[in-house]
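Reopening this ticket.

The earlier resolution said the output was attached, but the attachment link was broken on my side. Pasting everything inline this time so it's all in one place.
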Amino acid sequence: MNKTKIIATLGPKSDKSKEIGRLIANGVNVFRLNMSHINDYLELKRIVETIRKTSNDLDRHVGVLMDIAGPKIRVKSDFKQLKVKKGDLLTIGSGNSDLKITLNLSFQNIKIDSRIKVDDGKISFSVNKVITKRRLEIKALNDGVIQQGKGVNFPNIKLDVPVLTKKDIKDIKAGIRLDVDWFALSFVRSKSDIKPFKKILKDNKCVKPIIAKIEKPEAVKKLDSIIESFDGVLVARGDLAVEMGYGSVPIIQKRITYLCHKYGKPVILATQMLESMIYNDTPTRAEVNDIAVAVEQGCDAVMLSAETSVGKFPIESVRIMSKVISNMEQEISNFSNFKGTNPLIAKIDTQVSMCHSASNITSELNAKLIIAMTESGSSAISMSLFRPSARIIAMSPNESVSKKLSLIWGLETEYIKDFKSTDEMILSVNKFIKENKILRKNDQFILIAGVPVGVSGTTNMIRVETIK
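Inline output:
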């Protein structure tokens, strides 16, 4: 099993049982539901239930990530596509505009010659005239084709948009009902953006981890506070590149990965990882290198978007991504032992210190396995932070925790029963290892757990066990 996880976005090409099963078999750990393109809640329910049933049939813990659209501005004009020539004059905004958009924006503070970009920057416009506060005349700066539903960006223009739209609120409540494992919030601008999201969860007596999608310049300026406040980060490189320029993205990606390691939060790298495989059955060398760099930087997961949702080769995309990850991890393991993140962790508590010690013991004894007993998942996540070369199996009596941990670097998950005593736990772990032929006789493994057993947040025990 690869340590770097794969997230696949579901869509028309991949949201049926057969395709979901093949995606799991080829290495998918988490499925993303892009709520920008899902409006039918009965269909949403069918997709989630299909994921759960298929993963259960395959005896795999697979996570579900609901990606909340946020105030994403999109083209909603009544056309399938619109061909644009350089120099063409169009109108954008509300009313009878050529390009109607999904949010009713005010353009009072926009300047002439400001840039507007459509479809991840493939087509650019300059503001030619402010017709009304809700409508602009814009001039095309290049040829292109605009399709319905494509994103619209206003780089370096401050717009008064809400944190959550009415649809977002409905989507979050639907995600709560369907018991998804992770939420992601788009267009996060500050740490306070998590508050209205958390209020909805609290009002519905629900606790779920929330990932911040970094794609705005405002967020880049406040990375530390955002990473501390949210439960993880997704680097949305498409909108980030449009907003801040392509040359900035590699630097920002590296900085975010570093800070996520520092604060002990998972980091996902996304957008155009295998873009060419939407239409071709083989990737470019640059795309292969992009995945390899993500693995080397120590990200928790890499994400496929259009490649698996609407692309012609969803299974092949996952298979190739998995192979690149495997080859790169093997190379890193041979030469650097997956070390490098442990000096970064800023907040040291008992749990983190115990996991650090367990990682060091594993390395010194050349043990091949770490068993992390976990009630809430936090100790297993802390164990992952130190990137040990040993295999990590997180055992939890909470099945929802097992699904949540499917996104975290290096963690394999196993659902177990509650134990009454430490002795019972140790006997059960030894039995599991023997029955599944994970280790051989006289092999050592490291066990981290909390005493007394069954109490969340009490990680205080490290044991070195030998298979008899």
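Reporter confirms the inline version is readable. The mean pLDDT is 92. The two ends are 25 Å apart (CA to CA).
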